[in-house]
Amino acid sequence: MPEKTMIHSAWQTALTQLDSVSKLMMLPEDIHQILRSFDRILTVSVPVRMDDGFLRVFTGFRVQHNASRGPYKGGVRYHSELTLDDLKALAMEMTWKCSLAGVPFGGAKGGIVCNPKTFSKNELERLTRRYTYAIMPIIGIEKDIPAPDVNTNEQIMAWIMDMYSVKNGYCTPGIVTGKPVNVGGSLGRTDATGLGIVFTITNAMKQKKMNLKGIKVVIQGYGNVGSAVGKFLSEMGCKTIAVSSSRGGIYNPKGLSHDALIKYYTKNGSFEHFPHAESVTNASLLELPCDVLVPAAMENQITKENADKIKAKIIVEGANGPTTIEADQILSGRKIPVIPDILANAGGVIVSYFEWVQDAQCYFWCENEVNARLKNLMNRSYEEVYALSREKKLNMRTAAMMIAVKKVADAISVRGIYP
Ligand code: NAD
């Protein structure tokens, strides 16, 4: 994996992207300054009594970027290398993602600096409940609605929801999305990001006049997002030829079976020694020949160091911020289209929005209805971005950012500034 120190931080990348589209759009400077800043950043301490009786104090954050279009929305990440700058970038990106998808939310992100893999289930529950308690003053059904992200899942969302409900004295399912279906979660939410990416791949293939069936796909990070992409693509007759986890990857040009991958990973916790496949590092996996490359792990994976070695015909960003600015330029020059994160991986937040709406109505939709509505919004955004990119001769990222930033800027303008 590329070293963090060699490249711009995700935050620098996010700011540079905003600055350059603002210039291109001739955005008024006062609006630009508002968009560059944050509504609120909360740092909290999270003391946890560990199973061995010792107390450890962790640091947690909740970053709220902009709520001009609706309540803040964004995931909660547990990671040992989490920084406030990462969260600022991710929160800002959520503002653009919600805006582009046309869902009435603003951007937020939160998390705790910790390695949850070393925690017992009870420790994880105590950590989650204490973090929820600490951020409670600034979250709420109509204020800020957390969701899962890296290393958090529906169980963690259930604990957040329970903590908030206990504190309020009544059941409040709408406080989080991505929770289990039996406590107000939405059908289709678990796989929504992956399914949305597959709709995006389908659109991109159509536009390239390529047949979807039989395409070769490389997926970096076979977690929530990556494995859902692999599952749906295999159902559609595509071939996943390489996958990875943080402990490295595997490659077989003839294709890897999704079911066998999941079975093996569940048993072994990694893909090491997976039968009939060659071992590859996460870095070399990105350079394999394929039709579609889906980086679905972490930010800053495609950099100026490896962008000229990428052999994919198209890159569809499953992760948030996997491509650096320098890499974007190199790929643009090499005519390798990059379908940006704010467009490609919006499926999760779109179905989170559906979950929030269903919770508010206390009326739940069947999975087909959720997926059909998701497809509709994903296709609408894709067409909008593609049309602008053609009209103005821009790459897809710039076109997507221009549409997203404009909607937020318009909301700020029409609401005005208090006082
Ligand atoms: P996850 O934790 O379920 O999966 C991440 C995968 O990446 C795992 O296979 C992990 O082993 C691997 N990984 C972790 N660190 C790595 C590294 N340094 N190098 C290579 N692989 C590594 O997380 P996820 O929910 O699938 O999220 C993946 C990405 O997608 C993140 O960038 C996240 O912000 C983004 N995303 C997630 C959702 C969602 O709904 N879960 C929605 C939008 C965007």
Automatic annotation (TrEMBL):
Q: Outline the extent of the Glutamate/phenylalanine/leucine/valine/L-tryptophan dehydrogenase C-terminal domain.
A: 186-416
What SUPFAM superfamilies does the record point to? Aminoacid dehydrogenase-like, N-terminal domain, NAD(P)-binding Rossmann-fold domains
Asked whether the UniProt record includes Oxidoreductase among its keywords, one would answer yes
Q: Which residues form a coiled coil?
A: none
Keyword tags: Oxidoreductase
The secretion signal range is none
Q: Which Gene3D superfamilies match?
A: Leucine Dehydrogenase, chain A, domain 1 (3.40.50.10860), NAD(P)-binding Rossmann-like Domain (3.40.50.720)
A Pfam family assignment = ELFV_dehydrog
Q: Which domain of life is it from?
A: Bacteria
Q: Which InterPro entries does the protein's record reference? A: Aminoacid_DH-like_N_sf, Glu/Leu/Phe/Val/Trp_DH, Glu/Leu/Phe/Val/Trp_DH_C, Glu/Leu/Phe/Val/Trp_DH_dimer, Glu/Leu/Phe/Val_DH_AS, Glu_DH, NAD(P)-bd_dom_sf, NAD_bind_Glu_DH
Q: Which family does it belong to?
A: Belongs to the Glu/Leu/Phe/Val dehydrogenases family.
What is this protein called in UniProt? Glutamate dehydrogenase
Species assigned in the record: Candidatus Brocadia sinica JPN1
Instruction: Write the lineage as a comma-separated list.
Output: Bacteria, Pseudomonadati, Planctomycetota, Candidatus Brocadiia, Candidatus Brocadiales
